[in-house]
Amino acid sequence: MIFLCVNQTSLKNFLQMLNRGIPISVSLEPNFKNDTSGKLKYNKKRLFNLSLLAILISICISFIAKFLIYLIDFITNISFFGSFSFADASPAHNTMGLWVIIVPAIGGLVVGLLALYGSKAIRGHGIPEAMEQILTNQSKIKPSITFLKPISSAISIGTGGPFGAEGPIIATGGALGSTLGQLMRITPNERKILLAAGATAGMAAIFGSPVAGILLAIELLLFEFSPRSFVPVALACITGSAGHHLFFGEGVVFPMQQQVENASNAALFFYSAMGVVVGVLAVATTKIVYWIEDMFEKLPVHWAWWPAIGGLAVGIVGYFEPRSLGVGYNNITDLLAGSMSLQLVVSLCLLKFVSWAISLGSGTSGGTLAPLLTIGGALGVMAGMVGQFWFPLADISIPLAALVGMSAMFAGASRAFLTSIVFALETTGQSNALLPLLASCTSSYFVSYFLMENTIMTEKIARRGVYTPSTYEPDVLEKIKVDQLATDNGITISDDMKIGEVRNWLQQEPDLQANYYIISSADGKYIGLLSSTTIFSSHHQPDLLIGSLVKRTQVFVSNTDTLKTAVQTMAKENVDILPVVSEQEIIGILTYQHIISVYNHGIDELETKQKHISLKRQRLKILLRGQKLVNVLRTRSHEE
Questions:
Q1: Residue 311, phi then psi, degrees to nearest 5
Q2: Cα(106)–Cα(121) distance, integer angstroms
Q3: What number of H helices and E strands is found in the chain?
Q4: Which end of the chain has fewer CB atoms at under 10 Å, N or C?
Q5: DSSP 8-state code for residue 92
Q6: 184-197 per-position pLDDT tens digit
Q7: Of 564, 577, 560, which Cα lies nearest the Cα of 476?
Q8: What average pLDDT is seen over the chain?
């Protein structure tokens, strides 16, 4: 360990001592050993309180989810059947004839007015808007979204909008979590966790899918996986799922008539190939939706009229195919049953897509999951029928093909890979479908990754210049200890030097100037850090001792701390250098250049191509060994 302690006697011979340094042993006060001001640890009590808040939010969201379904049914009954009833109703059974065309248009007009005079944030399907607030606005969502989003979505869906209830309840739950987070004194990261907890609790309350909700938070909202985020979200999803069982029943949302059998190898290969096709169509679906949105941007009318125009298109499509209207969860159940004719499946797939794409592109309020599941399920049924015709011995199951198509479409469009698989399992209870789902979603995700830069969830915010993290790699700083990088030589300034002497010394040696300097006492005790700005400030008299300027609390890191702790300490204290302390001794210095070197090393690991095994060299070794063996055999034969 080599340190240079600069004082009045050493200043004259500084250049000579620089090459060899002066070893010193720094003794620190006992109470300094227990000081943890330089270490940032998450308070477990805060995690406990955050978890309680997440549970409270999820309880509220469960009631809001039930209210939303009631409101959708109420508006549906009024709009299509003229009755004031909260009973479950589907627009597909209406008998309005041509009058059905204007109902979605009226709903779109009301949504446009709510967006214009309420909040423009109610437009869209919820998840991209929540992601944008997380990434750009410290998870702050307007409190008005908490009631404007469910009301606008209920009007949109209740008047025939081809959306699911999951998008609005996710947005509403996120808004409620964000609002509560803004009312309380918590950090932006904790507010993000409450937002994600509320959003995914809403999904669990609608579908009874807690694990899929947790994975959705990790893949699309949190962009991290840690106990402080995972625990509150998990508790919220469990509570939301309990709310689903209480208000909607304990059965799965999309029941299938019978348990699917394990897929054969031939069927598994077919489902994998089907995932490729669905992945291409998922990319095409995403691009068409945003192309339609671009077309609406070019219309010479105010954007508040766009939902009405989109609603008019929905009404026209709904006149020819009534099943394209409304939530359509029953369509998904029918597709999974495998009982629909090919003509009906093709009609539902195409017209549902046209209706949904135009309506979503118009900027109305609704969700994307249910339409994607419907379109993907229909594609799966059609592919399954073709597979049964061409490969009758492959044991292809139509219901399983529908389930695989649903999941693959969601995986390809959103690239929420794990969420897509687990959601299909939780909402159908088909555990034997795991391997086909894994195969098809992997294929779809693979194709989507290569053909599409952004997803249906991120394209909108990407156009606004918002970057969405796409990787969840462990922080390289958490894997490296401070003692692996800290240097064991450096400069300390004695606190008994005068300010003028230090100034002159630093001016004479510009190469040694830095932003911060470590100040020690005459006997080597660590005093603290001092900035160069403070040293050269004209407010301080040159005759004062340099130690009198130290006001900062003692900041340090231990040799066993990780570099992440060091970076957090540097950021909190706004310094670029830290003393490293071990067993009451300063054993080194850590600077920001060390941190940068770690990231450079990480980049090299990702980009530098290396070959550690040479096949040519191995062949030469084998040939040499063979030649030696031949020589030995020849020698033995001559001796005999």
A1: -65, -35
A2: 20
A3: 24, 7
A4: C
A5: G
A6: 888 888 999 999 99
A7: 564
A8: 83
CA torsion, ordered 277, 279, 283, 285, to nearest 10 deg: 70
pLDDT at 467: 83
- Residue 311 pLDDT more than 50? yes
pLDDT tens for residues 39-97?
Answer: 445 578 888 999 999 999 999 999 999 999 999 999 999 999 989 888 888 888 888 88
Length of the chain: 640
Q: Are 371 and 163 in contact (CB under 8 A)?
A: yes
In the beta sheet, which residues pair with residue 557?
Answer: 580
CA-angle at 218, arms to 400 and 241, nearest 5°: 65
Amino acid at 630: V
Pairing mode of beta strands 489-494, 2-6? parallel
pLDDT at 18 over 50: no
Residue 576 dihedral angles phi and psi, to the nearest 5°: -120, 15
What are the backbone dihedrals phi and psi of residue 560, each rounded to the nearest 5 degrees, phi first? -95, -5
According to DSSP, the residues that pair with 563 across neighbouring strands are none
Instruction: Mention every residue, 6+ apart, whose C-beta is less than 8 A from residue 23.
Output: 1, 2, 3
- When pLDDT is averaged across residues 376-398 and rounded to a whole number, the result is 92
DSSP code of 263?
P
Segment 129-171, tens digit of pLDDT? 888 888 888 888 888 888 888 899 899 999 998 988 888 888 8
- Encoded tokens for 67: 């209210």
577 in Cβ contact with 589 (< 8 Å): yes
Burial of residue 511 (number of CB atoms within 10 Å: 0-12, 13-18, 19+): exposed
Q: CA 85, CA 78: separation in Å to the nearest integer?
A: 8
Quick count: other Cβ atoms within 10 Å of Cβ 619? 10
- What's the angle, vertex CA 416, arms to CA 446 and CA 385, rounded to 5? 65
pTM of the complete model: 0.79
**Helix (H), strand (E) at residue 362:** none
pLDDT in tens, 397-438: 999 999 999 999 999 999 999 999 999 999 999 999 999 999
